[in-house]
Amino acid sequence: MYREKIDRYIDAHQNEMLEDIAALCRIESTKDSYRAGKPYGLRCAEVLGEALHLGESYGFSINNYDNYVGTIDLNDKEKQLDILAHLDVVPAGDGWTVTKPFEPFIKDGKIYGRGTADDKGPAVAALYAMRAVRELNIPLKKNVRLILGTDEECGSSDIEHYYSVEKEAPMTFSPDASFPVINIEKGRFPGHVTASFEVSTENARILSIEAGIKINVVPGKAHATITGLTEEEVRPMAEGVTKETGVQFELQAEEDAIVITAIGKGAHASTPEEGKNALASLLLLLDRLPFASCGQTKLIHSLTECFPWNDTEGKALGVAMQAEGSGALSLAFTMLTMTETRMEAYFDGRFPIGGNDDNLLKPVEAKLASHGMKLESPQLREPHFVDGNSEFVRTLLNAYELYTGNKGECNYTGGGTYVHDLKNGVAFGASMPGVDNRMHGADEFAYVSDLVASAKIFAQVIADLCK
Predict the structure, then answer these.
(1) Residue 66 annotated in active site
(2) Separation of alpha carbons 281 and 254, rounded Å
């Protein structure tokens, strides 16, 4: 029911939808320092204002919750369905080739740019689903609300603020992953690791290391400044590590020092195997260079042992695990700052159902302590589960099957979404199964066909759940 009307409407408004997506993606809405009335900085407030402007211009009722969250309501009836999306993005990062990160560009059926897939494109697809239902006069007895946040990438304090004053709807989905339905989200184990050591007076030593842009991003670049060695000594070692790991190295002489830049491939920390961790490969190179023995070089060896470049499952830390229905543990070493006296680092672990303090937190804490490192304020975030046989989930799967012709089934993810702490929340779209949108990496994109299909599927879901 309504499929033909929905198909025609979304197809007719495809170009307009892409223009609205591009308008939001031109705004570099990465989290910034607080400004009065703008908790996540000027650009996050700007993109929220632009999105709410779009919603109001299409005839919807809008509300701004102190620039934390904005909402767009389809009608003023009883609350039934919330659609949770976010407008903040991770930093641009390096390695973009098709377009600049905040200059959206359509090529070969794909729209490129930071946020096109994560999560501005899907957010606009949801808005156009609401437009379709409204403008096609599909009768509804209940309301759908599009909730647009601005801090999903940095902790989701925006949603905490929203739910401190609003109740969650009976049903919620977030278009921030992939179809068909993700009803299980792995737990998260974010690690903050520190260590201190005496300054070395030896000639051959490491002066500094700097790598990583966010805890949930596998670093595509990493930098180290060393002294006491020549390029002729470093280059053969670097070439050997490149053959082993696939990460490239650039050397640049600066007075009495050499700056080493590792160039890998960024990825989302929930899927570290899809990237080439520049930091882990840089540590491998540094561990093999003939530096003088000191606390710092010993720590480099420890980091290489605990976070090997080819280990994305926590084997070296003794916490590799797997569970039926929720997959295997993943772990990525994502950030490191090291001076001549101190080290501060971060890792991002995602674990299946069954992970707990005894088989995760305590073993990692003990392993790091044995190497002179401290795990600061360790805490696990529990996995999330919603019954895949519920009427809500079955309705989502039916709509997916109707518009794609593919079988609908439930899956799990290592990525955390806004629905992680909601009683009846799942991730639903907006990319199709098997598509790598390069979220959090260079050349992020969304297939135009996927965004169009998503808008149609979401419209059908609204019609079915709110009738």
Answers:
(1) no
(2) 22
Decide if pLDDT at 30 tops 90: yes
Averaged pLDDT of the chain:
96
Nearest to 433 by CA among 456, 459, 405, 461: 405
C-alpha distance across the termini of the chain, in Å: 12
Is 88 labeled as catalytic in the residue annotation? yes
**pLDDT at residue 222, rounded to an integer:** 98
**Contact by Cβ (8 Å): 415, 178:** no
Report d(CA 377, CA 166) in Å as an integer.
30
Which one is catalytic: 46, 119, 152, 311? 152
pLDDT, position 268? 87
Average pLDDT over residues 346-353: 97
Q: What pTM value is reported for the model?
A: 0.78
- Name the DSSP letter for residue 396: H
Question: What is the percent of the chain with per-residue pLDDT over 70, rounded to a whole number?
Answer: 100
Annotated active-site residue in 46, 88, 118, 444: 88
148, 135 in Cβ contact below 8 A? no
- For 457, phi then psi, to 5°, come to -65, -45
